[in-house]
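Quick one: structure for this chain?
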Amino acid sequence: MALKKFKPTTSSQRFKVISAFDDITCSTPEKSLLAPARKSGGRNNQGKMTMRYIGGGHKKQYRIIDFKRDKEGIPAVVKTIEYDPNRSARIALINYVDGEKRYIVAPQGLKVGQEILSGKGVAPEVGNTLYLSEIPFGTVIHNIELRPGQGAKMARSAGSYAQLMSRDGKYAVIKMPSGETRLILQSCKATVGIVSNGEHNQEVSGKAGRSRWLGRRPRNRGVVMNPVDHPMGGGEGRATGGHPRTRKGLPAKGYRTRDPKKASTKYIIERCKK
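Got it. Here's what it folds into:
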């Protein structure tokens, strides 16, 4: 993984920092694993805008990712490492010995030609998917299931990982990327390693146009709006707008919005820091 900086030949190149894509081994996706990715432009089925600042963007195709890793005991060989426009991490095309092809989220250090496995009795090596009951303490993991057989839901973005701390009865104690410590059933699966493209958070677009390519429209600050449009709007000149609020009036900084009566709260040992 490496970042690419540019000479300041134009104002948009001056601060531009993007991925060098030196880990990509193939530029053409596997046709059988593509699906159409339709855009909503932030509109619902009645054509009304329900999400602001969404629209435009480059045309994409969705890559069907295997988050379940349910082909247990069958070896697969990594064929390519590819770019995925739908996520921050890289993806890997794997070929099973029975001929089936699948995409997975590529962990850091996964190489073309490497053999990976999933299921019971598998070695805790990078790219292998194991049950939480079989992973050694202290191992860094990603693509963690919340419920058995549901498919990976947590620690899936670029550079993210969780850590298996201990076990308690039928549960495993996991320290999440946010710093939260929670219980997850040991019958859930997780993949060993850190998600690839860890330097993604250091990229700088350099210009507004790159955001438009990603389907992001210009975003207005609340303080420049009128009072009818936002709780922080109005005032003479450049008013600060008072306490930071969302458009609906909820406090915007440090205010916890999680429902204390939520059923899964009992599985959280320690909340993430503010």
